[in-house]
Every structure is written in structure tokens, then in C-alpha cells.
Amino acid sequence: MNADMLSWPLWLSSPLALLGAGLLLAQVLGLVLEARGLPKLYGAVVAGLVLGVSGVGMIDTAVATQFQELFNAATALVLFEVGRKMDLAWLWRSRRQGGSLLLACLLRGTVIWGVLVACGLNLAEASLMAAMLIASSPIIYASMVSDSQASGVTVFAGANFIGLANVTALLLLVPTVAWLRSSADGELSSYGAELLKQLSRLGWGVVIALLCYGLYVLATRLSRARARMRPGMLLAVLLMDLGLCSVSAASALLSLLLMGVLLRNAEKRDNVFQAELRTGQDMGYALLFMMSASLVQIQQLLHWQALAAALILFAARVVVTRAALVPATAWGKEKKNALALSMCSLVSFGSLMVDNSMNGYPGLSEAAQQIMAALLAINVLAAPGLTWYGLHLAGENHEENLHV
Known about the structure:
Na+/H+ antiporter like fold; 0% strand; disordered C terminus; transmembrane helix; transport; ion transport; Cation:proton antiporter
């Protein structure tokens, strides 16, 4: 036998082999957890923690970077689904309900900004973090809905809130990123140029979405594609959208969300872009969960001041979301509690921006960096379970159907 084959550590030098091993471990652990009535996607979290930087260190930032395009593609599909589930007509017609969801977004940003300023952060970095913490993670929410086989009014409202919160966060990030960058340069006169640059990213995201959606409509109509053929054509166009956003530094999040919104609200034909290949969808969620967990630094939770601030912020987001739902009349108390809890997750800056044009948290102080690191660690460890519990609290999970 070849000596290289006998040298087993060489197997560990293959990023693809590591990824496969991690996914296999995630699936095995997930089945064990599911048999005990727990979310099976926590298997991916455990696998990521064991193999990642907080464990044996086999999967680190260098390994993750090699698969960045794959992760971006998986995230793109989730974001498209978020947009596809946004019902603009319902948000407009259901005045109290739609208004409550928008109020929740605004209250989140306002209260979190106040807490961060009270923690000693400067106004610019508090504004950036507050804008980012408005959003809830579409990946965590969608995966827990899939894991629980949940459907109902709370799931529908949650899907609309996810889209609304992510768009609100993105729009508020534009002026706050410009403010933070111009402050870091020490030249407030550069704010206008930086703001224009950020606005152009949004503008190009819209242009690319309209272009790709137009190509999809043109291609399906010219070819007279049947409903069962259109998902493949749509997937091709989504990859085009993501690729164009990547090379042009356009906002992929806005572009992909808009693609989903257009498909739901402008396309009148039957759409069948559903996860018929459920196994592939579940593997995508497991991959994203595992890689997120692999980069979590558990030691960040040892900084008690940052941890205390992070826990206050995490809890405040749930409380103010619940308070904002008070005017809504279509949901009962139990549904409102469930909705507020299931919206507890948050997104990282990289996930919200999707592409690689901005890495980390530019311009944030060390204290702010520690708070964000603690928040993301709590997010990976606690948010999936709380989201899953919120769906159970709403009584809209149908996991029993999986075992019939």
C-alpha cells in the first residue's frame, strides 16, 4: 500500500474530506437528538463546535474560506425563499398586523441603540450594531420551520417579519456604515462619498434583480417551459444574480430578496420552486449550521462584561418584539409570545451582506467586537432551540407527520 495512504493525517489535509466528515457526524448526531424530541439540526451545531476553532480546530476560517462561494449559494437560496414568502398585499391590507411587525423592527433598533450607548459605545458603532440587530436570521428560522414541519398563522407572520426586518436592517446599515467609516478615517467630509458608495450597492442590487427576473420571465415564456421545468431555470438565474452581485459588490441580500418578492407578487403563473428534494435542503441547512458553529469562539463567553451586555441585548430584542405586537388583533396572546420568541435569532454582518466585500466589523472598538462575538456565540447555541420552542408554543409544528 502507498506510504502516503498509510499516513492518515494527510486525509485531514483535504478540506472536502473534512467537510464530508463533519456533515456525516452532523447527520448521526442529528438523528440521535431527533429520537429524543430535540431539533436534529443541533447535531450540526455540535459537530461544528467539536471540529471547529473551539474544539479540535480541524475546521477553521481558512477551510471555511475555500467553500465561501458554496455557502453564499446556499444562503442565496434561503434569502430567495424569504423574499418569496413575503406577502406585500397582506402586509398592506392587514394594517394592525403589518404595522406591528414594522413597529417591532423600529423598536428593536431604538432600544438596542440606547442599551449600547449606555454600555459606553460611541454613537456611530452603536448605530451600526443596532441596525444589524434588527434583523433575525432567515437561516435559523427557515431551518427550524423545516425541522418542525411547521405551518400556520405564526409561521406566515414570522416569514413576513424576517423579510421586513432584514430589509429594514439593510437600509439602516447604509448610512451607519458610511458614518462609521468616515468617523474611522477622521474625515466627516468623506461621509457623502461613502454614503453614495453604499447606496450604489443597493441600486445595483435592484438593477441586477430586475435584469435576472426579466431573463427568467423571457426564457420561460419563449421556451414555453412547463411548471415542473421552471425551478431549474430559476435556480440558474439565481446563481447568475449572486455571481453578478459578487463581482460588482452589489447588495446580494437586497437583490435576492427582491427576486423572491417579484416571483410571489408579480409572477401570476403557478410556481413550484419548492424543496421537492428535501434531503438536499436539509443538507444545506446542516452545512450552514455546522460552519457557523465551527467559527464560534466559546472563550468569548468568558468575558463576563461582554457576556452580560450580550444577554441583555438578546433578551431586550425578544421583549420589545413582544411589546410591538400588542396592537395586532389577529393573534392571541399565546401566538404573540410564540412569534416574539421565534424571532430571537440574529445575523452576523457577513451573513447580512452575503458577499465578501466587507469582512468582520470595520471600525468597531474592541469592546464592541467582544459584545458581537458573545452575541453570535449565544445565537448559535441558544437561538435555534428558542426558535424551535417558539414554533412548538404556537402549536403549529407537525413533526408527528414525519413518523407516520
